[in-house]
Structure formats: C-alpha cells, structure tokens
Amino acid sequence: MSAILRKIIAPGGIPAWGIRVIASRTYSSSAGGKEMTVRDALNSALDEEMSADPSVLLMGEEVGEYQGAYKVSKGLLDKYGPKRVIDTPITEAGFTGMAVGAAYHGLRPVVEFMTFNFSMQAIDHIINSAAKSNYMSSGQISVPIVFRGPNGAAAGVGAQHSQCYAAWYASCPGLKVLVPYNSEDARGLLKAAIRDPDPVVFLENELLYGESFPISAEALDSSFCLPIGKAKIEREGKDVTIVAFSKMVGYALQAAEILAKEGVSAEVINLRSIRPLDRATINTSVRKTNRLVTVEEGFPQHGVGAEICASIVEESFEYLDAPVERITGADVPMPYAANLERMAVPQVEDIVRAAKRTCYRSVPVAVNA
Amino acid sequence: MNFTSESSGKRIPCFRVLDDNGYPIAGSIFEQVNKEIAVRMYSGMVTLQIMDTILYETQRQGRISFYLTSTGEEAINLASAAALSPDDVVLPQYREPGVLLWRGFTLQEFANQCFGNEADYGKGRQMPIHYGSQKHNYFTVSSPIATQLPQAAGVAYSLKMDKKDACVVTYMGDGGTSEGDFHAALNFAAVTEVPVIFICRNNGWAISTPITEQFRSDGVVVRGQAYGIRSIRVDGNDALAVYNSVRTARQTAINEQRPILIEALTYRVGHHSTSDDSTKYRAVDEIEHWKTAQNPVARFRKWVQGNGWWTDEYESEFRSNIRKQLMEAIQLAARKEKPPIANLFTDVYEENAPNLVEQERSLGETIKKHPQDYPSDVPL
Questions:
Q1: Closest by alpha carbon to A341, among A243, A213, A207, A148?
Q2: How much is the pTM?
Q3: What is the architecture of the domain spanning A2-15+35-220?
Q4: What value of ipTM does the predicted structure carry?
Q5: Interface of A with B (CB under 8 A)
Q6: Interval B179-235: pLDDT, tens
Q7: Catalytic annotation on A105?
Q8: C-alpha atoms less than 13 angstroms from C-alpha of B365 in its C-beta half-sphere
Q9: B35-335 adopts what CATH topology?
C-alpha cells in the first residue's frame, strides 16, 4: 500500500458517512504558572456551583463531618450546613433513591459514591429511574442529578474496589458519562455536569486526586465550563492515534514521549466524555495517522475500546493501515498482591509496544505526509 | 440476660370505623365526612371497579397488551386520595389509579395511556397502567418494586427545603416491604425528618407469594417502630378508617415534619395482572369470600345509602353511565393514531443528542427507500 495523501476534511465538511467534524482544540495549558491538585479542582467546582445555585446539594457517606472519604468535599459542610451537605446512613440504594426523588422534584443533587464499585448497590435507581425517567415520562420528569466518585483501580485494594464502570454506564441511553483527567478537566466537567439537566455519571480516579496539574486563569474563573461530549487532543502527532481516558491519559502521554525518542509521533486524545463519545475527533485523528491504539483500565470484553474500534471500522475503515490495538485491564478480577496487580492493569510499556506494533504491521513505506 | 422476643405475642390492633355491614362501630371516634366528599368517594370507587372490569376485558380481547386491576382495594385508593390535598405529591407503586382518578384524570386519559396512542401523555413509551401526570402531582408509575420509596423521601426532602404546606404520599404492597429500598427509605425518612406518608396496601399476596412466606413479623406496621417511625394499622376495606388515618397522618407529617407508616389491611381480589391466573395458587372460595362478604365498595355503599345520600336508582344509572363513557373512550382511544416515529428519539436527554438526530434522519431515509417493510399506518 503506497502512501496516499489523505484528503483532510475541513472543519464543517460532511463526508458521506455524515460525521460532523468539529475542531476540538480547547483550553491549552496555561501561561500563568499556577498549579492545582485534582482534589482541589473538584472541591472548588462543587463550592462554586453550590454557591451559585441553592438547589445544589451534596450527599453521600462521610461527605460532611469527615470532609469526604477522599477529602474532596473539605470545608463544604461548614460553609453550606447540614441541609445541603448531607452525611447519609450506609445505604447506597437509600441515598441514591432519595437523591433521584429530590431531583424529580426540582433539586440538583450531587451523589457521592465512596467508590463506583458501591454504586452497583444503587444501580437500579441510576439506570431504571434516573436514566430512563425523562424518556418514560415524555419529558415530564427531568433528572438533573450527578453521580460522582472514584472509579477504576486504586492501589492494592483488590477486586471489589477496583472495577472500572465506564463501559457499563456509557452503554445506557439517558445517561451522560464523563471522565476527567487533569485539574482543568475536573473543574470544567464537574461544573458542566452539575449544570446539565440530564443525569451525569462522573467517574473520577482516586490516584489522580493528589496529582497537581497546571491550570489556566480562565479555568479558575467561576464561570468556566467545558463542553460535554468533546474530546481533547492532549498532544498532536502524525503516526499513530492513542485514545485514552482518566488516568490512562497520563500513561499515554508518557508513552508518547518514549515513542517520540524512537521516531514515532503519537497523537494522544483525552476522551473527557465516554457518553456522548466524540467519534468525530477520534475518526479525524485516525484518518490522519491511519493507526489506532485504545487504552483503558477496565475489562476487555464490551469495553470502551471495543466501541471505539467499531466506530472506526464503521466510519474510517479504509483509512486504517493496521488493525486497531486495544490495551485494557486483564480479564480477571483485580488481584491484591502488588506484583499481580501490576500485571492486571495497563503499564506505559504496554502502550509503547502496541503503538510500535501498529507502526510495523503495515508494509514498511514512509508514513503519511 | 434477656432476649427480646421475636414477637410481642399480641398483634397490633387495627383501626376501624365501620363494621362489616357499614354501620359505625359503637364508640369509634372519627372525623365525619360530608355528603359531597362521601358521594365523590363512593362514585370514584364504583368508577374504578367498572374501569378495571372493562379494561381487563379489553386486554383479554387482545386490544391492549397488559392490564392490572385494583379490585378489592377501591377504598384504599379513593379514601386515601380524598384525604390529601392536590399539592401533596404522590409516588405510586402501580395499584393506585384511583388516586389519579380522584384528582381528575379522565377515563379518556386512562384509555389513551393503555392504548399508547398519540394522545397518551407518555408518548407511547410505557406499558399500560403506567400512568403519570405532572399536573396532577402523580409521578409516572415505575415497574421495579419499591424504588419509589426512597425517591419519595427525596421528594419530601425537597418539599421540606421549600417549607411547603404539603407532604408526599407513597404506596407499596406487602411484597414491596421486602425490598432493600423499603428499609433504606424508612430509615432515611426518619433520619432526615421529612414529611412523607408510607402507605402499605397489605393485600395478602405478592403474585403467588402469600404474606406467610413474605415476612415473619406481625405484618408491616411493627417495622415502623424499628426505624423510629410512628405507625398505624388500619382496616383498608373501611373507607372511613382509611380517610381518617390518612388525614391525621398528613397533619402530623406536615406539622411535625416526620414520616408516618400506615399499614392498610385488604385483599387482592383480582389476579396480580393479566399475566397471572391466581386460581392456580389460591382457593376460589377464598377469592369469592373477599369479593362478596368483604367488598369495600358494598360496605361503604351501605353507609352512604344509610345516610340518604345514594339510592339503588342512582347506582344503576351511574354504573350504566360510566360503562357507556368508558366504552366510548376506549373506541376513541383505539381509533386514534399511534404516536409518530419521531417520538422514538426525543426525551432521551433534555436536548436531543446529535447521534439521535442522525439516527432519526437515517431511519427516515430507510423508511422512504423501503416502505414495504414498514407499517403504512404509523406516522413519521
């Protein structure tokens, strides 16, 4: 296959498949030099939204007196009082159901799950009530609720505390599913989620809470909001597209650095949103690079990578120069021992090797101009 | 060392106003119901009976896909509704259409929902009997059992924040009290001190599971205390007892900002639904007994007629009137168009998602290209 100059679809142009191409460059890193941890970013977003709208409530286990199991809600009880920051009894089904009912009647609850693993005890309320009510009631019952909390693997917490729920929730119509990576994502997406009239599942990551990222002045403004459903190109490249979300974005960026030293220019896409999935950005990128690696921590079968692969095959098949590579967690419940755990989640080397495989699998001609 | 016994030995007594023959029990204290309300309650109970009979038959004839009756529970339906104000928010299970009827939902509106036609407020999205009406403060029926209970606590929390002179009323059956959501809801409502009334229609059966296999406690009323909730057991087939207890519960819930649990004892005369044949698991004479000797409609009729507010002539005239109205409503509902296909894609989100807009467009094109594969009588 000789290198063919691919026609680049101009923004706004609509090819036969009907994909709208949208320029997806959003706020780039700041020139201001300020840094913020993801935890503080989430805290400030909650604070600002609660201050701006008295119908916003936060509820969950340990969110009040304890300042949050991961201290994300630090200071909020003192500031807004026990009627708006509610320490609930231990019943996910109870407080989720209660929050859904409150949302039905005009409040805007933010429900915190200590980890999304525990959301399974409340999943009927999330799916059968929150996600489907607007549809089933033909618009009479809207559910402006946010379900947030840490998702995916932490470190050494075993099978029942490490599952990634991105694929499960994102398969459900009626929900929106967001996956912030850095502090800017955390602020912009959480604010957007709280303002959104539809139910939003907001998947954070425990290991990212303490990580500090540069943050721009505009991201610090209280009106800052990121659009839901738009991915961000974290690093431009031309040889292979690496799509990731949440913590794996950091790994993908590290992999891109390593690949650059070996002459492979990787484009890293931070999904930011799993539902709606920004297929346009992913497809545009793959049409440019002709190679794709998807990265996720979750289980492989029916995962996010599977959906992205299907989207590419449906819409950009002839642009692929190599089969799509999926990097996922191992198909086992998460083991505890550190060495086993390391083998069960993607590592930077896995991404590097996958990207290289896609680059060598096609007939070795010069990569696309 | 003293273990508290698993049972107190004595069953919690049941509040009653009328005896089996519709006479006020000597010494019973109750708030009087005036003629207007009594007649409206009674005629509502009769309407519900007729609606159930005819719509059940309509399913049997294959004209609607599903139906479930409230036969035997008319008193709970209408009397509890009569005791509430229109501002009180109702979260039903599914055997409480009488509450919606009391609030003004018309026979035509009921029929439209069952037929899923274009006039259905639910836009044809829900199976029959899943009524809902925002303007009547009646939340759309949701099938999974007991999910409405913690949600009711949440709605009550919202009312409490707004300091409204209103409460939430939510219903469940005896089977629903086994769900985890029941326990979470009661506990939650007690801890957050919200104005919600939990009404349990203990009708003896959860499809084929009798209450002897549902729980080991003295019914449902005893559980209230376990959660710190004031509770009462009431004769659910005594319209005046139901009316009185709900009135008092409402006042307490609002004035004291606390939840209340009401266990209304009754009997599910009908099958669970059109997908059930209850003669397979219970005795036919048991059903007959409750249908005749313990019929709540007949019992209340005796009291209403005893006061001179109703006669046998009114009865036959009223019944034939309602029957006629309902038959017309059904004919009209059956003839109305089905909802347009565009309704398939709206309301998934508040604003239509681009992928759904695309799918709708694509479906439209496919139908145009292959009209022979699609029903010609369904509008786009």
A1: A207
A2: 0.88
A3: 3-Layer(aba) Sandwich (3.40)
A4: 0.85
A5: 18, 20, 83, 86, 88-89, 91, 93-107, 109, 124-125, 128-129, 133-142, 173-174, 176, 197-198, 229, 276
A6: 999 999 999 999 999 999 999 999 999 999 999 999 999 999 999 999 999 999 999
A7: no
A8: 6
A9: Rossmann fold (3.40.50)
